[in-house]
Write a structure and sequence with these properties.
By secondary structure, the protein is an alpha/beta fold. Helix content is 39%, strand content 19%.
Length: 72
């Protein structure tokens, strides 16, 4: 989690909703932390090859963002 928070601190904050693309999302932690810090109405599109990681990514993202899609 600290590494994900440090990575997202490099992004420019916007008061407007953003579209977040998380390629190779793994467990979805980076996308989830980014979405948590983004403006309301933001969305996340995550792409993950591994079945188990794609499921974990869906769970992680659903906790912080209503507008998510995980492509497996």
């Amino acid at each position: 989690m600290p590494v994900a928070e440090q990575a997202t601190s490099l992004f420019t904050h916007s008061d407007k909703p953003v579209h977040i693309l998380d390629l190779g999302s793994g467990t979805g932690i980076l996308g989830a932390v980014t979405a948590r810090q983004a403006a309301p109405g933001s969305s996340v599109l995550a792409i993950e090859q591994d079945d188990k990681l794609a499921s974990a990514s869906e769970l992680s993202l659903a906790q912080v963002c209503d507008r998510t899609k995980v492509i497996h």
